[in-house]
Structures
1.
Amino acid sequence: MPSGRTHDRITLYALPVVAGVAFWQTRSGNITLLVAGGFLFGGLMFGPDLDIYSLQFQRWGFLRWIWLPYQKSLRHRSFLSHGPIIGTMLRVVYLGSILAILAVVGAKLANIAFSWGDLGRSLFLYSGEVFALFLGFELGAMSHSLSDWGGSAYKRFQKQGVQGLLPSGKIKKRKVKSRSRRATGKR
Ligand SMILES: [Zn+2]
């Protein structure tokens, strides 16, 4: 698994590529900015490693408590944090619910009317922008998960050669492990 610094470097190196492709595909400065901004945010502080005490987690500063329940409920590198789409989706819903609670409480305290209808309407009105931002988050998160998986595949390759890259190699290793565990248990 690459370190947080390596992940950061991958995110920064990939940024011009992501921005370039976004602009090439949309010809829109706004959409490109949203995709690129989402990609940076997703890669640097809104990524899969929020499920552990990581650089991404530390970057939330005094707001990092937000992610403590998330960490408590997810195993590190679980499918729910590192999986494609589902990881970002869950984080968006998670952060969105906390922001919604804060908005409702804040509006009450400040005596401002808060309307779910208005919020829904503007999300719908700007659905293109919302999608661009989500795409950016997802690309940032995926650059992370892909380098995690790539990194551990490379480590297996160094240890076991090509065998380590085959799915059967992994299963065999697991079987051997549980057998030896049982054997030591008997003794
Ligand atoms: Zn990770």
Note: Residues 48-49, 77, 82, 144, 148 surround zinc ion (CB under 6 Å).
2.
Amino acid sequence: MTRKVLVTGTAGFIGYHLAKLLLAEGFRVHGYDGMTDYYDVTLKQKRHSMLLQHPNFSADEGMLEDVVLLDRVADEFSPDIIVHLAAQAGVRYSLENPRTYIDANVVGTFNVMEAARRLNVQHLLMASTSSVYGANESMPFTETEKADTQLTIYAATKKANESMGHAYAHLWNLPTTMFRFFTVYGPWGRPDLALYKFVDAILDDRPIDIYNHGDMYRDFTYVDDLVRGIRLLIDSVPERPEDGVVPGGDSLSPVAPFRVVNIGNSDKVRLLDFVDAIEESLGKKAIRNYMPMQMGDVPATWADATLLQRLTGYRPQTDFRDGIARFVDWFRDYYGK
Ligand SMILES: NC(=O)c1ccc[n+]([C@@H]2O[C@H](COP(=O)([O-])OP(=O)(O)OC[C@H]3O[C@@H](n4cnc5c(N)ncnc54)[C@H](O)[C@@H]3O)[C@@H](O)[C@H]2O)c1
């Protein structure tokens, strides 16, 4: 039987790639996206229009906060699974406009959880972020360690989602998986993220801002690897442990069918090496503007992806140089540069 997945944020970067993969794997997908103007809406419309060419894809445009519309869409589609990716994303913008994060991420996510509970879905999967590790210093970051030192409202809303998700999983026996994504990049990527900004600026002979003088490390995750991880986790449905005993290294809750899973490459890359690889791909040097660390930023993120591998047998592997080259190919083709 064809399984039905409601995916929020399908006009977004990750939602688009996930929907494409699920359709290729025979799922029926319904998208829900508010097409917010946080970045170029044309890019979102283009992603949606490509998905709409597939006979098993349908979508509604709507905000997560519009509970009447969201409920109607969810009821009509009656999904087996919900993957909730729509959110106000971005670490830096959360200093400028924190309220949109409360509205979209806290209120919006609550509305999605309510729909999932009411429709008694088999599995609710929701996006969190490596930013919840905040000021944690022991690396690589593992899901079983405490994550109580969020440094931005963005991270705080995502940590709140994890906490809300746990409560609903416990109260309603709603199997819930939260993903912690680590700096995702690839074709059709977000214009507010470093790779896009760097490529765009270098091609236009504008300087690029390199924060913390380039002494930053990120666990860059190629988008195809990330959505493969999500797809496999759909079938790894958490079960409440009967005796409350959780095997070592598993983030499963002792009192709920709830788990948090890192999806990262488990390879930390120095920002300067990342910039070198972009220059290599473009065949052009950047004008480098070295800057101090930005407020709310962290010097490094690095994922322990052991749990993902244990649950799915899969581990993201794309080398950042290959991923950057694929992004550059897409960017040049799309913008004709
Ligand atoms: N890209 C990354 O590096 C990264 C890292 C960690 C976590 N995440 C998380 O992954 C998810 C997807 O991120 P992305 O990179 O695809 O971002 P994105 O901004 O490209 O996609 C999010 C989509 O959600 C929609 N949206 C935003 N607010 C909405 C609202 N209130 N109602 C309805 N729709 C709304 C937007 O229109 C957009 O299409 C987000 O939850 C984000 O926080 C992303």
Note: Residues 9, 11-15, 33-36, 44, 63-65, 85-89, 104, 108, 127, 129, 181, 183-184, 190 surround nicotinamide-adenine-dinucleotide (CB under 6 Å).
